[in-house]
UniProtKB/TrEMBL annotation:
GO terms for molecular function: kinase activity. It comes from Agathobaculum faecis. This is Carbohydrate kinase family protein. Keywords: Kinase, Transferase. Residues 6-301 form the Carbohydrate kinase PfkB domain. Signal peptide: none annotated. The lineage of its organism: Bacteria, Bacillati, Bacillota, Clostridia, Eubacteriales. The keyword tRNA processing does not apply. InterPro entries: PfkB_Carbo_kinase (IPR050306), PfkB_dom (IPR011611), Ribokinase-like (IPR029056). The keyword Oxidoreductase does not apply. Belongs to the carbohydrate kinase PfkB family. Pfam families: PfkB (PF00294).
C-alpha cells in the first residue's frame, strides 16, 4: 500500500444483491424470471471509497465484515481495486452486511437489508498515523452506525481537524427519529455536509433549501450541499449558492449509489483544488456515470474521462440552468 492517503472512508460496507427488473405484479407471484440477479459491493462508505479510488484518489476503507463468503467476496474485490483495507475488521460469528436491491424498470429501487454488524464498528479502528497522512475523513452512513452516531464520531473528527484533515458527512435514512438532535454534535465538527433532499428535510424541518442553509449555518460548516436526484443539486459555502441541474442521460440502469458517487466526485474534485462550482459539476458528472451502470460501484471511470465528459456536455447542464 502507498504511504500516501487522500481519503479515509468509514461507515457502511454491504454485499448488494441486485435483482431487476422487478414489478409489483412480480412480487405477487410464486416464481418470476428476471433479467439480472447479480452480487456487487455496496454500502455508502464502500461506494464512496471505490469511486474515489477510480478517480485516482489513494483511499482507505474502515468498516466491518463477517467471517463468511460475502465478507470474503468484499475483501477480495476491494483488494483487487487497491483500496486500503488494513483497518477492515472481520467479525467471527457475524453476518456481513447484506442488501437485496429490487430495481423497477424505471430504475427506482427498494432495499431489504441486514446491517446489525455495523453495531461493532468503532472509531478507534482508524489509526492515528493515518490521520497524519490523510486529506479527507469521510463518514458515510450516519444514522446507521451505533457507535459513531449521536456524537460518537466527534473525538475522531476533532483529532482529524487537529492534523488539518477536512471532515465530510453524508447520511442514510434515520429509522429512530430525532433527526437534528442526533447529528448536531457531529455537524459542529464537520466541514462538508452532503445529505439527500429527503434527509435534509427531516434534519432541518424545512422544505426550501435556502431555509435549510439558514438552519445549518450556525454549525460552522464550510460547504453544505443537497443532492436533489434527477433535479441535480444545491450547493453553498454560505457566501455563494447555486442550483446545478443533473447531466441528462440517455438511459438509466439503476439509481443505486448515485448519491455516493456524487460524494466521491465532490471529494475528489476538492482534492484536485477545484472551486465549489467546478467541484459540483465534477460530482454531478461522476453520478451520471453511476446511474448508467448496474450496481453502486464500477460505473465511474478515471478522472480524465470525467473531465472530458464535462468538456463535452457542460453546455447541456448550463443551458438548463439558464
Amino acid at each position: 500500500m502507498s504511504d500516501e492517503m487522500d481519503i479515509i472512508c468509514i461507515g457502511l460496507l454491504m454485499c448488494d444483491i441486485i435483482v431487476k427488473p422487478v414489478t409489483e405484479k412480480a412480487l405477487s407471484l410464486d416464481a418470476t424470471p428476471v433479467d439480472t440477479i447479480q452480487m456487487l459491493p455496496g454500502g455508502d462508505a464502500c461506494n464512496v471509497a471505490c469511486n474515489a479510488a477510480a478517480l485516482g484518489m489513494e483511499t482507505a476503507l474502515v468498516s466491518v465484515v463477517g467471517d463468511d463468503p460475502n465478507g470474503a467476496f468484499l475483501r477480495r474485490w476491494l483488494d483487487e481495486r487497491h483500496i486500503d483495507i488494513r483497518s477492515l475488521a472481520v467479525r467471527g460469528g457475524q453476518t456481513t452486511g447484506t442488501s437485496i436491491a429490487l430495481i423497477e424498470p424505471n430504475g427506482e429501487r427498494h432495499f431489504l437489508t441486514n446491517t446489525e454488524i455495523f453495531d461493532t464498528l468503532y472509531a478507534e479502528q482508524v489509526p492515528e498515523e493515518w490521520l497524519r497522512q490523510a486529506r479527507l475523513l469521510s463518514l458515510n452512513g450516519h444514522y446507521r452506525l451505533k457507535n459513531l452516531d449521536d456524537g460518537g464520531i466527534v473525538p475522531l473528527f476533532q483529532k482529524a481537524r487537529q492534523y488539518g484533515v477536512r471532515t465530510v458527512v453524508d447520511t442514510v435514512w434515520n429509522r429512530k427519529g430525532e433527526w437534528l438532535p442526533r447529528i448536531a454534535p457531529t455537524l459542529r465538527h464537520t466541514d462538508i455536509f452532503l445529505p439527500s433532499y429527503q434527509e435534509a428535510v427531516q434534519i432541518t424541518g424545512e422544505t426550501d433549501v435556502r431555509a435549510m442553509r439558514n438552519v445549518l449555518k450556525p454549525f460552522g460548516l464550510s460547504v453544505f450541499g443537497v443532492k436533489l436526484g434527477e433535479k441535480g443539486c444545491y450547493m453553498t459555502d454560505f457566501k455563494e449558492e447555486f442550483f446545478l441541474p443533473a447531466f441528462p442521460v440517455e438511459s438509466i440502469a439503476s439509481t443505486t449509489g448515485a448519491g455516493d458517487s456524487f460524494v466521491a466526485g465532490f471529494e475528489a474534485a476538492q482534492l484536485l483544488s477545484l472551486d465549489l462550482y467546478e467541484s459540483a459539476l465534477f460530482a454531478s458528472a461522476a453520478a451520471s456515470y453511476t446511474i448508467q451502470a448496474p450496481g453502486a460501484v464500477g460505473g465511474v471511470p478515471d478522472v480524465e474521462s470525467v473531465r472530458q465528459y464535462i468538456r463535452k456536455n457542460r453546455h447541456l447542464v448550463e443551458n438548463i440552468a439558464q
